[in-house]
Amino acid sequence: MSKVIKFLIFCGAIVAVVLFMTFRNHSSVDQNQMTYSVDDKALSTSIEKIMKDNPRINMSVSIFDLQTHRRYHYGETASFDVASVGKLVTATTLLIRIEANQLSLNDKLDGVPISELLRRMIVESDNDAWLKLNTRVLTHDELNYTAYQLGLTSYQSSSNTVTSDDIALLLAKIAQQKLFDSEHTDLLLSLMRQADMRNFIVKATPEGAEIYHKGGYLADRVHDASIIHKGDRSYVLVIFSKARSGSYDYQKGSQIFAAITDATADAFFTE
């Protein structure tokens, strides 16, 4: 089968997923939506103060309330080079192809099952596994097409750039099981639960909360994208941060991430 035909089949699978998501969204309204609230003013005041107090760091913070579907954004609105956070788009595209029966987790690449490459990419943030999946299993066209169809209009595979808002949207769709069946959703979440880079959002997550995340860093930046759940409340928190000049102060960055994580936890989990 030619690459063109395979790609057209893949595009059809994406369209089918999007249509199914749209139907389900319109047919399953959350009747308890209005019972949840967030102190918007307190949340905004806290996060904006953190940003003001750290002018050497360019930040973009996106939050998605998984009960009310309300979205919040603070700071930079432009796309960032997202480092290993971009592996979430690869994982999503891969699992969509698997659900379309175009691939299997048991298929092997250089003797290594795709399931193991996926695990290495998400849990260990293995760049070699990411490169193999991006170039030998998937293509830049497939990655861009998937992102666009799912509403991630800022994503560019070749430059690995995207906004924090679009990553928050992707995690919201994953958390709400809008992209895959329960088996593949649980698989990805289980890998995110084990993922490395635990000194940022994970470290500051309140006791008793469950967190699923993917972090990424370069010499001048740290990013972390997470789904946080406790009791009957859950939300997505995405923090992008980049030094305005020079290298990144990881210790200071960890403190900033902790402060933002604390502020969102106070807003969502305080009764």
Quick recap:
Helix content is 48%, strand content 19%.
Outline the structure in words.
Helix content is about 50%, strand content about 20%. The protein is of the alpha+beta class and about 270 residues long. Helix 2 runs antiparallel to helix 10. The longest helix is centred in the N-terminal third of the chain and has 25 residues. The termini are far apart. About 5% of the residues have low confidence.
Shape: globular
Biggest sheet architecture: 5 strands, antiparallel
Q: Tell me the strand order in the biggest sheet.
A: 2-1-9-8-7
Q: Helical amount among residues, as a percent range?
A: 40-55%
SSE string: HHEEEHEEHHHEHHHEEEH
Kindly state the number of beta strands.
Answer: 9
**Rg from C-alpha positions?**
18 Å
User: Roughly how many Å apart are the termini?
Assistant: 57 Å
Per DSSP, what share of the residues sits in E-state strands of 2 or more residues? 15-25%
Tags for this entry?
single chain, 271 residues, alpha+beta, five-stranded antiparallel β-sheet, two-stranded antiparallel ribbon, 9 strands, 48% helix, globular
Topology, pairings included?
Elements: H1 3-27, H2 40-52, E1 57-65, E2 71-75, E3 80-81, H3 87-99, E4 108-109, E5 112-113, H4 114-123, H5 127-137, H6 140-149, E6 161-162, H7 164-175, H8 182-194, H9 201-204, E7 210-218, E8 221-230, E9 233-243, H10 250-269
Antiparallel strand pairs: 1-2, 1-9, 3-6, 4-5, 7-8, 8-9
